[in-house]
Write a structure and sequence with these properties.
The chain is built from two helices and five strands; from the N terminus they run ββββαβα. With 80 residues, the chain is of the alpha+beta class. It has one domain. The strands form two sheets. The protein has a three-stranded antiparallel sheet, covered by helices on one side. A two-stranded antiparallel ribbon has the order 4-5. A hairpin with a 4-residue loop joins strand 2 and strand 3. The chain starts with a strand and ends with a helix. The model has no long low-confidence stretch (mean pLDDT 92).
Length: 80
C-alpha cells in the first residue's frame, strides 16, 4: 500500500497546508506542517539538539483529529 492519506488542515486552502499520512511500508506517521521559526527552534533545543536530518514543524491544534486518525490507522494496520 505505502502512503495512506489521512487529512489536510480543514481551515486552509487545500494546497499548501498541514497534512497527515500513514506510511505502512516504512511504518511511520508522516506530517507536513509549517516550519518552526528561530524562536521556537531555540526553545525546542533547550531539551536537546535538533539534528540536520530532522525538522521541527508546527501543526495547528485543529489537526489533532487527523493525527489521532493516523494513529488509529497505524494501530489497525498493526504498525508498532
Amino acid at each position: 500500500m505505502a502512503l495512506l492519506f489521512i487529512a489536510k488542515d480543514p481551515n486552509t486552502n487545500g494546497t499548501q497546508c498541514p497534512t497527515a499520512w500513514v506510511d505502512d511500508e516504512a511504518q511511520e506517521i508522516v506530517v507536513q506542517g509549517w516550519k518552526a521559526g528561530e524562536s521556537l527552534l531555540a526553545r525546542c533545543r533547550e531539551t536537546g539538539p535538533v539534528p540536520e536530518s530532522e525538522a521541527v514543524v508546527r501543526l495547528p491544534i485543529r489537526m489533532v483529529p487527523a493525527i489521532r486518525e493516523a494513529c488509529d490507522v497505524a494501530d489497525r494496520l498493526g504498525i508498532r
